[in-house]
Design a protein that fits this description.
The chain is α+β, with helices and mostly antiparallel strands.
Length: 80
């Protein structure tokens, strides 16, 4: 995996996470990737999970859901 922070010409901050084939294999084996956010200058940690569908991901998250958990699907965007 590679991790990088960058800034676009328009001044937008970007966090880049590049996954290797081995990272993808581990994700598919049910081994989420945990990234310490402070290492990237972020206030939150990042967890990357894999699921065949969003329903599979929600099922995985169910045991961790608490009163302050907000799980929402997002639409991916392409960086221009």
């Amino acid at each position: 995996m590679i991790k990088a922070t960058m800034r676009t010409k328009e001044g937008k901050d970007i966090l880049l996470l590049g996954l290797s084939g081995e990272n993808v294999r581990r994700l598919k084996d049910g081994k989420p990737i945990h990234i310490n956010g402070s290492e990237m200058g972020l206030g939150n940690d990042i967890v990357i999970m894999y699921g065949e569908t969003e329903a599979h991901l929600y099922k995985e998250l169910q045991p961790m859901v608490g009163a302050e958990t907000d799980v929402q699907p997002i639409k991916p965007q392409t960086i221009q």
